[in-house]
Amino acid sequence: MTTGHRSVPPGRAGRVWLRRRLQTARRGREQMDRRLRILLPERRQLVAVLDQQRHDWSGACEDAATWLRRAALLGGEDALELARSAQQVRVTVAWASSMGVTYPVEASLTRAGPQLERLWSNAALAPATTAAWRMVEAGAALAVTEEAVRRLDAEITLTRRRLRVLDQRWLPELTGALRDLELVLEQGELEDGIRLRHGGAAGGEGGRPRGGRP
């Protein structure tokens, strides 16, 4: 007898073999079902956050573009070029783990190096700089949540695929193989019992005297 690509040992050893694998498959299914019950609510929460962050990102981009246009109108492109900062931005990402899935949860932005004092050539440059920084922060937050949702989606898809394989293939196959083997063993035990009874009856008849005294 075979199940999948594995040969089932014959007789009672096969029954033990199948029961153990069936127990392992059921335990694995319970674990994957529990994983989905935990990951799916987390994903729903992140998607709600993601929708708000996309709205915030869009608004920050529009606000920054508005102030940059005002600064360009007041001082020209040269004013924007002179206002450009040489500071680098360092991004630090915090990570979390749930049910074996590691994903980002927060991005912290810091400016590397001292901020140089500037004499703005027009009044729109300072608010334009602030709006641009807010746009960068909103973009980083959005990127973190998008990556978190992507990782959760990948794990949820993989878990669901494994559950389908268990439900549609391994559990029915192992259950059917165990049922068939139980029938074979039951039939064999029944036949052994009949043979033993017949053997006992025949032995009793052979050893009984047939008349006269011994």
Summarize the structure in words.
It is built from two helices and four strands; from the N terminus they run ββαββα. With 214 residues, the chain is α+β, with helices and mostly antiparallel strands. A hairpin with a 2-residue loop joins strand 1 and strand 2. The longest helix is centred in the last third of the chain and has 82 residues, at 125-206. The radius of gyration is 37 Å and the shape is rod-shaped. 12% of the residues are buried.
The portion of residues forming beta strands comes to 5-15%
Number of strands: 4
Shape: rod-shaped
The whole-number mean of residue pLDDT values reads 86
SSE pattern, N- to C-terminal: EEHEEH
The share of residues in helices is over 70%
User: Could you give a short account of the major beta sheet?
Assistant: 2 strands, antiparallel
Please name the defining characteristics of this protein:
214 residues; alpha+beta; 2 helices
Write a brief structural summary:
72% of the residues lie in helices and 13% in strands. By secondary structure, it is of the alpha+beta class.
